[in-house]
């Protein structure tokens, strides 16, 4: 990397201080830092892009499965119920997760424990 | 009577206590016992990562029992097999090697203070063939010369362990060959729910921002005089991912394995103490109070395609990340596919538990007094802490930027969860959010950056491997 085959050139020996060694280490370390962060961001951005495409292709949109246009039928009462149900489930999950987190947390000195979850 | 006294004296001479005090560095054993005691205290009383800290601490105890000889590190580290100390050849291969070089022209090799180098560039092809045949005759399949340096073959290490090794030697082979970290990642993948990440892929950016500590710690370690390989192994502590740290260290700097594994797991356990001050320092109360909207639902198809696509993309770009990302996603596929319940349950229960015991004990066993009690261990612990803190800051700053860009829809606290450590970092974000507003529930949102951090740290590890391995 950077024409360096002998990495001993970038090892700083503080017992025998040599400014050129420190400069080499600064340049080499800085380059790896920059390239490393750019690579991590590039790979994860690519994954972000893929996940965004996922939503278009694989996400269950109302009416998509049947292959029909989203006409009146798609907006009928059952579909509405489905949407409401999903939102409620997400909220319930959030509440349950928070309850578990609080019960497990010692920082608040919580004096309760989660005994059971029931759908009502 | 004197025979009885002699017998008792002989027996006492064989005890570990006698062997300990017979050595000049006997005090190092006592220091190690204190460290082992502290680790047991953290694991059992404080419940800090007990599943790993307890086996690691016990492995350290076993490795520091004088005369027990439970692990033979000389089988695994090249230096122990054949090293040059003050110009003298030492190690189990020293005799074979001396016989070999006694047949060579002295112009062909140079024995330095701590290394031996061959000068083969000026040789004709026929002479190099002769050199190689001579080398094979004396050292057989035990070692080979590459770029002027002698390397011990893995097959020789395995042969030595099988013929003369004990239980801990056999268990350590799993670390040496890089088997355990991948198997643990498979279990982690089977236990991890990537739904929050799929539902909110922007989280990936926070997982990436939180890797800043990895590369910053690499930079500082390099300036402190560590080699690039050692610096990479130290930097990966900032990824807050134990198996990744162990895999990278065993490849790049096996001599630092004990110190890095202990630092990584100790800091992961200390996340609830390390992160909150930075979270409060870098965010305003108003930002901490931000409530995030519900996540969208994720279809089963998305969940199934996700691990396959991630493996393909990450491993095609950074093939060195395949042992981690590949197994992480395999475990996840077992779980989400719905058709391999038995495999999924095995990966997330029996398999990961067994491997965790093996990994913990064998990694702990590498931390003997001779290896562990060095000034560089203190530097590693300091640099590891820096890596964690900088990673937390990196994640939080990325969260703040995203908060601004989205018009305040993202609570920047969840950025701190980008430092892997699933699910503890996400819980800390949840706790801090709730302290600002008791009705704020960030846990599911923080799980997105949290699992993104797992992928991010594996990618960072792959970057180091592609540069230095």
Note down, in words, how this protein is organized.
The complex is a heterodimer of chains A (120) and B (469). Chain A has two helices and no strands. Chain A has helices spanning 19-58, 77-104. The N and C termini of chain A lie far apart (63 Å). Helix content of chain B is 68%, strand content 4%. In chain B, helix 3 (26-45) packs antiparallel against helix 4 (50-63), helix 20 runs antiparallel to helix 21 (341-365) and helix 24 packs across helix 25. Chain B starts with a helix and ends with a helix. Chain B has 25 helices and six strands. Chain B has helices at 2-14, 16-22, 26-45, 50-63, 78-81, 94-102, 125-139, 154-164, 167-176, 179-191, 195-199, 203-209, 212-223, 228-235, 242-252, 257-269, 271-282, 285-288, 300-317, 322-337, 341-365, 369-372, 375-405, 424-436, 443-468, and strands at 83-85, 88-90, 109-111, 116-118, 143-146, 149-152. At the A-B interface, helix 1 and helix 2 of A face helix 12, helix 13, helix 14, helix 19 and helix 24 of B.
Q: Care to count the β-strands of chain A?
A: 0
Put simply, the count of helices of chain B is: 25
Percentage of residues assigned to helices of chain B: 55-70%
Query: How many domains comprise the coordinates of chain A?
Result: 2
Classify the secondary structure makeup of chain B into a structural class.
Answer: mainly alpha
Assess the beta-strand content of chain B as a share of residues: under 5%
Q: Write down how many β-strands of chain B occur, each being a DSSP E stretch of 2 or more residues.
A: 6
Structural key phrases:
heterodimer, A: 120 residues, mainly alpha, 57% helix, B: 469 residues, two-stranded antiparallel ribbon, two-stranded antiparallel sheet, 6 strands, globular
Provide a short characterization of the protein structure.
Chain A has helices at 19-58, 77-104. Chain A is mainly α.
Topology:
The complex is a heterodimer of chains A (120) and B (469).
Chain A (H helix, E strand, L loop, with lengths): L18 H40 L18 H28 L16
Chain B lengths: L1 H13 L1 H7 L3 H20 L4 H14 L14 H4 L1 E3 L2 E3 L3 H9 L6 E3 L4 E3 L6 H15 L3 E4 L2 E4 L1 H11 L2 H10 L2 H13 L3 H5 L3 H7 L2 H12 L4 H8 L6 H11 L4 H13 L1 H12 L2 H4 L11 H18 L4 H16 L3 H25 L3 H4 L2 H31 L18 H13 L6 H26 L1
Antiparallel strand pairs in B: 1-2, 3-4, 5-6
